[in-house]
Amino acid sequence: MTEATKTNNLAPEEITKKDVTKAYLRWHFANEIPHSFERYLAPSLLYAMMPILRKLYKDDETLKAAYKRQLLFFNTQLSWGGGVITGLMSSMEQQRAEEEYEQKEIMMQDDLMYNTKAGLMGALAGIGDAIDSGTVQYIFIAIAVPWAQEGSPLGALFPFVCFALYQVILGVFFAQQAFSMGRNATGLMQSTGVQTAIETLSVLGLFMMGILAGNYVKVASTLKFSLSGREFVVQEILDQIVPGILPLAVVMGVYWFYTKKGLKVTQALLWLTAILIVLAAVGIL
């Protein structure tokens, strides 16, 4: 085998959109499986990137170096963070492989790649949590709650299936766009338009949670009293003055508990159940 043939065998292959889609889907379905305290989700990212890295680096040593590069501490949200960073790392690794193969000055340094990843993973996680967990899932739940109340299995299946499909489609879209744009994707995610959209959706999410609480948190008072021969029903008085005040009080009480004690869901449910049982026993609720 000639030297030229050996060199050609080490040439990086072209990364296609199909490769990027496959990388995101590997990340998506392996996201929490190898979760570890030391590296968090880095093994999932490496698993996603492995087919791409194998196409780019034909030499064992450079391939090992790329594996180590993608195995550093990593933690982000599934679709927004995972999609953008998977596509962006694919683009940056492709540039790094070409620089190494052509023996050019290495502009795509390890520190630059990791700092880009580290700078995005927290910001994108915040965006994804605010929009996906704080808004979109509640829209699907609000649509499905009436079906669940009627006893239809769709009430349970619809939010789960729709939210899962939404995240897969969104993640693939972000991965493709980030790969096509390369490092310019970072500027896009930090643009004024995107930030305005994020704030708008966050407000919408708060409205959706308020609507769900107002419609589906059922708390009513059974307290009655007589005065000058006339019976007064406390719940009717409350409905005339401040409708929905009791469900609001319950929701705000749980929120206050979370702000004081942290997100201890089980404790909150136990305390809420105990308080409601006592109030029901004495005839207030």
Structural commentary:
A hairpin with a 2-residue loop joins strand 1 and strand 2. The chain folds into two domains: 204 residues, no CATH class; 64 residues, no CATH class. The chain is elongated. Strands 1-2 form a two-stranded antiparallel ribbon. With 285 residues, it is mainly alpha-helical. The N and C termini lie far apart (87 Å). Helix 2 packs across helix 5, helix 5 packs antiparallel against helix 6 and helix 6 runs parallel beside helix 9.
Write the SSE topology:
Blueprint: H1 3-9, H2 17-30, H3 42-56, H4 60-69, H5 80-101, H6 110-149, H7 154-181, H8 184-189, H9 192-216, E1 224-227, E2 230-233, H10 234-241, H11 245-261, H12 265-281
Antiparallel strand pairs: 1-2
Helix pairs in contact: 2-3, 2-5, 2-7, 3-5, 5-6, 5-7, 6-7, 6-9
